[in-house]
Specification:
The structure holds 2 protein chains of 2 kinds.
Chain A lengths: L1 E6 L1 H7 L5 E5 L3 H11 L3 H8 E5 L2 E4 L11 E6 L5
Parallel strand pairs in A: 1-5
Antiparallel strand pairs in A: 1-2, 3-4, 3-5
Chain B lengths: L19 H5 L15 E7 L5 E7 L1 H5 L3 E6 L20 H8 L4 E2 L5 E7 L2 H10 L1 E6 L6 H4 L26 E9 L2 H7 L2 E9 L11 E6 L5 E5 L4 H12 L6 E5 L15 H11 L3 E4 L2 H7 L6 E9 L5 E13 L6 H8 L8 E9 L13 H19 L3 H7 L19 H9 L12 E10 L4 E9 L5 E5 L7 H13 L6 E5 L16 H28 L6 E4 L2 E4 L10 E2 H6 L8 E9 L5 E11 L6 E11 L6 H20 L30 E6 L21 H13 L10 H10 L5
Parallel strand pairs in B: 1-12, 10-11, 14-15, 18-19, 25-26
Antiparallel strand pairs in B: 1-5, 2-4, 2-6, 3-5, 7-15, 8-13, 9-10, 9-12, 13-14, 16-24, 17-18, 17-23, 20-21, 21-22, 24-25
The chains are: A alpha+beta, B alpha+beta.
């Protein structure tokens, strides 16, 4: 499945040399993280620990098992915490 | 995805709260109610200075006092590595955390813990505290966020370099971090606007003001195994933080939750638990430490105070074309304000093509800020929702209609990246616009104000264990401390899933050794995430109960269905069997495989955000400046209300806390940075006699990702009140108040100044 992966400006500045968007082939979120880690070694760990993921707007905690529908939009956003 | 949403038998009903009787009869066991044989009393010495270098601490006289069993200073805790770990938004730096638990090089705020003693009784412990001599070098202090950002401000940390700025600054400052979010083309957005308004706003730091002060007992035995009993919003987090700070393994600590007398975010961190644990390690006896109210105000986290500049543009026909905000938040003595939330939530209810939010996390000489109900979001909402009211008045449009015209819907782009996937905001606006009192005429000096709010709501890790007892009763154990009625909602969801009577189900909060890891009760996550774990455990149970019924009937499991709390043959072809109840299947548990116990753990995703829209009517006394709330109506998208009475209570509670933030609550410091109003007599929270009945409107737009459509309900309700009241005051007296609290002296000053600044 092909998905479009997007990072926030701050995250991309720190980890992807400022590049914010990527086209990734993956069946599930594990595949997305693995592919990003191959492009930027070490990035996978940051994604796992620091982010929450929105798949087509639906927000999930990062979990390998999340399926990636064809053509989906994936945003890695700062992990959320409340009161 | 949802396979059940529809009409329910138990979900949506209002049974009597299961924690009610022990609480009203005084038998509920809060943190301070616990006692153990051989227990010592711990007391903490706190800094009298807002900012001071600690040259030395002499504990010899205290240690020599008869009855004193241990004296503790920061040197007794292991040093922690300086590194930010975990998610950026909530990164923890244990070098900071251990220094907040007990000061090392410097005391960074009045009330900062400096040393502690364990003694045979409270009087001895107090006497010993007075015998500890601390040699301080008093330093200049800074409290206000704008002053703390000045280049010549006293530095809380002499080596702090701002993160998030490239290239990195070469000089240290009190600015810990800068964050930024941007979409669209700001220049184009401003060019499209017919009206542009820019304004500065300030919010006061306010305390969570939970009724129950922090309290804990710790016992560490000779084999290194420890136990903690504490009131908190998350005993698993208490365990992990205390283990790290005390140099213990997580597995060596067991934490049992006490009943909790309010938290609102402020009990998601540790203050006393590491101190009591270390004192117990040193003495070999249980140690109890309880804060008094003075300590709660001076040494525990309030939410941040904020200073912001907000700018928005709108066309004459009411289309918002651009929005910009700069948000500066007090982190307190250590980095970590909710400034990222503040930026992300600021314009989230709206469909605006061009948005730019910048945030600064700023340290100062106050207690480290802690989470407070939708942390960060109410601060930006005060500025943004005030400005939207100003725009509406400028173009002559009803403020709710202006919001409706620009409301976020499914597919609307957010400034932080994804598009909104859930509805709910429009429905809250429509509920307010259609309310019979919304157009009701008002009298002299009276005004009406509208405001909205947004909160993400949470998901994440939760666990549940379900046991079917021999008599068919059901025990539901979760790891979520109950601060908002979760025992009732868990029992309702279990009853609904099993198809049994609610009275058959008992829900409890289990300790860290008795249920799987569960994240804090915070972020409006428990009904959603822990509820999902409960429902999953029950569903697993039903599968097993069908299998066991099939075994009893000697048929294929596929031939058994579960309906109305009973196993039944799927059809007459299966055989002529009388349906079996939970009790009947439980009676044969040993014969069919052993005890009926089912566990489930989730990392729940698919949470839907919360939207709230509120309106209030106020009357301003022109003589005194006192603002009286005449009417307050709060509409909130709550998904499916699992227990509507608790949901209404959450809305009413959030609104009342917002009213306090709006009108009265603030910290008053003297010239030396010492708090002058550390008590509920002088720190003025609203009480029942200050308030009308808060009218909640439950807007139920179910979340399809939850088995019963639940959404978080506990936080978004505190976002709108400050701006709603400011907007109402402006409508009443034509004065725009931009600084909280809008207390009588400020209202009076605005009237005197004739400052209709907008």
């Amino acid at each position: 499945m092909t998905a479009r992966v997007t990072f926030t400006a701050g995250f991309s500045r720190r980890y992807t040399g400022g590049r914010r968007e990527f086209e990734i082939e993956a069946k599930n979120l594990r595949g997305v993280i693995k592919a990003m880690d191959q492009l930027f070694p070490g990035l996978g760990e940051h994604l796992e620990e620091e982010t929450t993921v929105a798949i087509d707007g639906e927000i999930h905690e990062v979990g390998y098992f999340q399926p990636i529908p064809e053509g989906s939009e994936i945003f890695f956003i700062p992990k959320l915490e409340g009161g | 995805m949802n396979d059940v949403v529809g009409r329910f038998k138990w979900v949506g009903t209002r049974p009597i709260r299961p924690d009610g009787v022990p609480k009203v009869t005084g038998r509920a066991m809060y943190g301070a109610d616990l006692a153990m044989p051989g227990m010592l009393v711990g007391k903490i010495l706190r800094s009298p200075h807002a900012h001071a270098r600690i040259r030395s601490i002499d504990t010899s006289k205290a240690a020599a006092l008869p009855g004193v069993k241990a004296v503790l200073t920061a040197k007794d805790f292991p040093e922690q590595k300086f590194e930010y770990v975990g998610p950026e938004r909530v990164a923890v730096n244990f070098w900071h955390v251990t220094r907040n638990v007990m000061a090392r090089e410097k005391a960074l705020y009045e009330g900062h813990a400096v040393a502690a003693v364990a003694a045979i009784d409270a009087a001895t412990a107090e006497e010993a505290i007075a015998l500890i001599h601390v040699d301080y070098e008093v330093l200049p202090h800074v409290i206000d966020v704008d002053e703390a950002m000045q280049p010549d401000a006293p530095l809380v940390f002499e080596d702090m370099i701002t993160r998030g700025v490239e290239p990195a600054p070469t000089k240290p400052s009190n600015i810990s971090k800068r964050v930024e979010f941007k979409i669209g083309d700001m220049d184009a957005g401003w060019a499209e606007a017919d009206v542009i308004i820019e304004k500065e706003f300030k919010t006061a730091p306010v305390h969570q003001a939970y009724i129950e002060p922090h309290a804990t007992i710790a016992r560490v035995d000779a084999d290194g195994q420890g136990e903690i009993w504490a009131s908190s919003q998350g005993h698993f987090v208490v365990r992990s933080l205390t283990a790290q700070i005390c140099g213990m393994r997580v597995g060596d600590l067991r934490v049992t939750p006490a009943e909790i007398g309010g938290g609102f975010g402020g009990k998601t961190v540790v203050y006393l638990e590491p101190v009591a644990t270390m004192l117990s390690k040193m003495t070999g006896r249980p140690v109890k430490v309880v804060m008094n109210r003075d300590e709660v105000f001076k040494a525990t986290g309030p939410t941040s105070g904020g200073s912001m500049r907000v700018k928005m543009g709108v066309t004459k026909d009411g289309k918002i074309t651009a929005a910009e905000g700069v948000f500066k938040l007090q982190a307190g003595a250590f980095p970590g304000s909710p400034v990222m939330n503040c930026c992300m939530c600021s314009f989230a209810p709206y469909d605006i093509a061009n948005v730019h939010s910048v945030g600064y996390d700023v340290v100062c000489n106050r207690p480290k800020s802690a989470a407070y109900r939708a942390p960060g979001s109410p601060i930006s909402a005060f500025g943004v929702e005030s400005l939207i009211d100003m725009l509406a008045k400028k173009i002559g449009m009803d403020p709710a209609e202006l919001r409706l015209k620009n409301a976020a819907r499914i597919g609307t782009q957010t400034v932080y990246g994804p598009k909104h996937a859930h509805a709910g905001y429009v429905e809250t606006l429509e509920a307010i616009i259609n309310h019979p009192d919304y157009k009701k005429p008002l009298g002299p000096n009276q005004g009406r104000g509208v405001a909205s709010g947004y909160w993400f709501n949470g998901g994440g890790e939760s666990s549940a264990t379900v046991q079917i007892n021999a008599d068919g009763t059901v025990l539901v154990a979760t790891g979520s401390p109950d601060i908002g009625g979760s025992r009732a909602s868990m029992a309702l969801m279990a009853a609904e899933t099993f198809g049994v009577d609610y009275s058959q189900v008992r829900a409890i909060v289990a300790d860290t050794a008795s249920v799987g890891y569960t994240h804090v009760t915070g972020g409006s996550r428990v009904t959603f995430a822990t509820g999902m774990a409960v429902v999953n455990a029950c569903k697993g149970g039903i599968e097993d109960l069908r299998r066991r019924a099939a075994m009893i009937w000697d048929v294929d499991p596929e031939g058994v269905v579960w309906e109305d709390g009973q196993a039944k043959p799927a059809s007459s072809n299966v055989g002529d069997f009388k349906p079996m109840t939970l009790r009947e299947i439980a009676a044969k548990a040993a014969l069919t495989g052993g005890p009926l116990t089912y566990a489930a753990s989730v990392n729940a995703g698919g949470m839907a955000p919360g939207f709230s829209t509120q309106f209030c009517d106020v009357e301003v006394d022109p003589e005194t400046g006192k603002v009286t709330i005449l009417r307050f109506v709060a509409a909130q998208d709550v998904g499916t209300a699992i227990h509507p009475s608790y949901v209404e209570g959450q809305i009413q509670g959030g609104v009342v806390q917002g009213i306090g933030w709006a009108l009265n609550e603030e910290y008053i410091y003297d010239a030396k940075g010492r708090l002058d109003n550390a008590g509920f007599l002088d720190y003025r929270c609203p009480v029942a006699s200050d308030l009308p009945m808060i009218e909640p409107i439950l807007v139920e737009v179910p979340n399809p990702a939850h088995p019963y459509g639940a959404k978080g309900v506990g936080e978004v309700n505190i976002c709108p009140p400050m701006a709603a009241i400011a907007n109402a005051i402006d409508s009443a007296i034509h004065r725009r108040l931009t600084e909280l609290p809008m207390s009588p002296p400020k209202v009076r000053a605005a009237l005197d100044a004739g400052a209709a600044a907008d």
